[in-house]
Amino acid sequence: xxxxxxxxxxxxxxxxxxxxxxxxxDGVTGLGDATLNGRELAVxxxxxxxxxxxxxxxxxxxxxxxxxxxxxxAYWRRGPVTMSAIAAIxxxxxxxxxxxxxxxxxxLLGGASRDAVLVYAHAxxxxxxxxxxxxxxxxxxxxxxxxxxxxIPGLSSTYGVPRGLQPYEPAEKGAPSEHRWSSEAxxxxxxxxxxxxxxxxxxxxxxxxxxxxxxxxxEAARVGKSLEPxxxxxxEDPTPAELQEAFxxxxxxxxxxxxxxxxxxxxxxxxxxxxxxxxxxxxxxxVHAGGITHLRKIAALAELYQVRxxxxxxxxxxxxxxxxxxxFGLSVHNFGIQEHxxxxxxxxxxxxxxxxxxxxxxHPGEAPGLGVEIDEELAAEYPYDPxxxxxxxxxxGTVHSW
Length: 402
Ligand code: CS2
Ligand code: MG
Hints:
- The protein has 2 domains: 3-104, Enolase-like, N-terminal domain (Enolase-like, domain 1, 2-Layer Sandwich), CATH 3.30.390; 108-368, Alpha-Beta Barrel (TIM Barrel).
- 37% of the residues lie in helices and 18% in strands.
- The protein has 13 helices and 18 strands.
- The strands form 4 sheets. Strands 4, 5, 8, 9, 10, 11, 12, 13, 14 and 15 form a 10-stranded mixed β-sheet that branches. Strands 1-2-3 form a 3-stranded antiparallel β-sheet. A 3-stranded mixed β-sheet has the order 7-17-18.
- Bound molecules: D-mannonic acid (CS2) and magnesium ion.
- D-mannonic acid is lined by residues 37, 170, 210, 212, 262, 312, 314, 316, 339, 389.
- The site of D-mannonic acid has 10 residues, from loops.
């Protein structure tokens, strides 16, 4: 089954997406998400200029061999651009294989391990009252798990909180905006947010929070400890995870569960965190961690240490990635939870899909393959529109993790 066509489709229905479409000699097509927020064209070029010329003519059935051909065969390994490009090829090949087999992808991954995939919503508020209103709205939609972000008194902006009423989309047109951050103000405020949320909504609701890489290990330990009375489902990215051993310090001080990994792109990024049980959830995704083939290996390692999956699912991961994540999440044994930020209506029109949301859970559907397609004519109506993620600085002007 030779691959006869491989095309990269860049489209911007409200935000930029990069999609790979493969076609076999039999006319079977497969899709892969290759979107890397703020660096989209780097992945498009890596695919168009370096990988796709070598893909034409290869046997679409040889998924594992193709993965290693582009990983080991490239000499230069790992990194978000390389692994997103490999991920797109891998995902498209799995889509093709499942379509040829006439089954939804999850059936090739071992079948369903659960009835549906538990997802969590985003609730963002400019202040405590706004955060409470946002949580109530997510509850009204049926979510059982809600990530809550809130404006920090004294700071003009913070991660996760949109300016105005539009949904949160961090990538901005034109040069990156610069934000100001105070860990001290955040550390003082954040326990008040969850104290208020528990008072408003009780103890049963799964509450999650994303620290977004902004604290030192001991600051993260302090926040984790201060949140223990509110029993979070997880505290995400408490400190930058390049130094995996840094999490030993956090673990020594708090039992608040920890989730890390949305910026990871290989099993090596998470190996120590998993093997030393320094995290409870691993957030690596199909699109940024080498596709379904590699994510399954990360999950298998995590299973040995009772670490569960918690795949990233922000709107800068396309519906193609969401579909793949749901097939993976339906099947993988050590599933934890799946992030769900609904895409815009215009995005959903460009990417018609089978997956559904109901009462806090999602299902990938029963269509052969991923169950998602791309309307290429409509996609062409939304040309690439350069956008950058913000740059963050502490109040004295020092560059800080965004
Ligand atoms: C965030 C992401 O959803 C999350 O957990 O960390 O929204 C992240 O900020 C974006 O994906 C960056 O592109
Ligand atoms: Mg995050």
